[in-house]
Amino acid sequence: MNRTTVLARVGGFARVRLVVEEFYDRVLDCPSLQRHFADVDMARLVDHQTKLIAGLMAGGEVIDDGHLQRAHQRLRITGPEFDTLHQLLRDVLEAFDYETGDVEFICGEFAQRRRLVVSAP
Questions:
Q1: 23 contacts: CB under 8 Å, gap ≥ 6
Q2: Which of 31, 49, 54, 121 is most buried, by the most CB atoms less than 10 A from its CB?
Q3: How far apart are CA 108 and CA 121, in angstroms?
Q4: pLDDT tens per residue across span 59-106
């Protein structure tokens, strides 16, 4: 898959932002995940994640592994919580009618970072 075309194929930055907003709406509705976002500036988080995901879709390096791991270490995210986040992401991408290949690409990139995000049993 040509990674440089994913962002354009899914409708560009503005459409990615809508996906990220919907993703976090669903995350905040999920009782098992809410605790991680109690004191989070959600507008800022949505901005940040939109840039990261759009950058990923455009084929760029979006964040280094060390930074990602440090940012999530204190959150004590469990494996099941990560799995829930992964499924919510997939659900939102499918709800926005992303093509199967694009869903697999984005979810695959997400899954590859599991070891950097999960820090609790």
A1: 49, 88, 89, 92
A2: 54
A3: 22
A4: 766 778 888 899 888 889 999 999 999 999 999 999 999 999 999 989
